[in-house]
Specification:
81% of the residues lie in helices and 0% in strands. The chain has 356 residues and is mainly α. The longest helix is centred in the first third of the chain and has 30 residues.
């Protein structure tokens, strides 16, 4: 809880610094940007893993571990729904003000609200390690972090879940967070719309729809798990679906079907948000419960490392050959993740990773 609480402070500082970059001269602009991004990155590092660990810990304490997929799917749906409303409001603010400063100031206020909300969480949700230190077990020496992570990693299915999640989530993030905006820009320019103007409303409306369908996908995670026949089968189905979408996106760029590509990205958003709760539920079964937050954070940081490594490469490809080269590269990484996942497939068919 302390980690997630602190992340909101970092977010608030970050969003308060970004507006200075919009008014600073060329010599100071990068300094403000780097400072703001560093604070935001610190907030992300503090947040990742912690919020899901809190939910999983609460489910365990209530004897409701089997409801993990539904719980995480529901909370993710609320998250995407509010994000969609924020995107719609952000597009309206950008249209009315003609600048980005107020967007950042209001985001800082929201971050402060998150900090206050976290202060209301009970201390009992600090995690298993904290409870052990406060109990009679505190005299018993607990295993170190590396030992606990190694123990989780030896569990059948851990490796495949880890590798496939890192490749799936990193490539989805690259497309939906970093290259969706250039795709939207190309589409708006083809329609003769400027981004600072009517295009801002169009982007806000699209993001509202995208986050809304993402929330619907999160709510449908238990349904996907049921019709697929299990967690492993559902994860494989979502992975292959993303791979197919990635291949068709290449075709859309080749024949200039930009609007069709934006519709396909809505489908990718549904798959990404539907898959994540199922993954967390399956991952919870193979990792050390006392190191949940750390293990989930390591998985998240691994995704960030892959994204960081690929960003300059895909950026160069975009500059030299356009978005079609980026989609080709992302498709290649997805394929490699699927191959590595098959190599790490456990021999026990009852493990949560299933089989492709």
């Amino acid at each position: 809880i302390k980690s997630v609480t602190a992340c909101f402070i970092s977010y608030a500082v970050s969003f308060s610094l970004f507006p200075f970059a919009t008014t600073a001269d060329d010599g100071e602009r990068l300094i403000w940007l780097y400072a703001a991004i560093a604070c935001f990155s610190l907030g992300e590092a503090l947040r990742t893993g912690g919020h899901k660990a809190i939910m999983l810990d609460w489910l365990d304490s209530e004897g409701r571990t089997g409801e993990a997929t539904r719980m995480i799917g529901t909370t993710r749906a609320w998250s995407k729904g509010t994000t969609g409303v924020s995107a719609l409001g952000g597009g309206l603010i950008l249209f009315l003000t003609g600048g980005y400063a107020w967007l950042f100031y209001l985001s800082a206020v929201a971050a402060v609200g998150g900090f206050v909300l976290m202060l209301t969480y009970p201390a009992s949700l600090e995690g298993e390690k904290t409870r052990e230190r406060r109990s009679a077990k505190k005299a018993v020496e607990s295993p170190g972090l590396l030992e606990r992570f190694r123990k989780s990693g030896s569990d059948p299915g851990f490796g495949r879940l880890f590798v496939e999640s890192v490749t799936f989530e990193s490539q989805s993030k690259l497309m939906l967070k970093y290259y969706l905006q250039p795709w939207l820009k190309l589409t708006l320019e083809a329609g003769g719309l400027a981004i600072i103007g009517p295009g801002a409303l169009s982007i806000g409306a699209y993001e509202f729809v995208r986050n809304s369908v993402g929330g619907a996908g999160a709510l449908a995670s238990t349904w996907l798990e049921r019709i697929a026949g299990g967690q492993g089968e559902a994860l494989t189905l979502a992975y292959r679906g993303a791979l197919m979408i990635s291949l068709v996106l290449i075709l859309c760029l080749w024949v200039d079907w930009l609007v069709v590509g934006l519709i396909l990205m809505l489908g990718l958003t549904v798959l990404q948000n539907g898959r994540r709760p199922i993954f967390v539920s399956a991952f919870n079964e193979v990792m050390d419960k006392s190191a949940r937050a750390t293990t989930l954070s390591i998985e998240s940081q691994a995704r960030s490392v892959v994204t960081a490594v690929l960003l300059p490469i895909t950026g160069w490809l975009a500059d030299q050959f356009g978005l079609i080269a980026v989609c080709l590269a992302l498709t290649g990484v997805l394929l490699s993740g699927l191959v590595m996942g098959r190599m790490l497939q456990p021999t026990q068919q009852s493990t949560p990773t299933g089989s492709p």
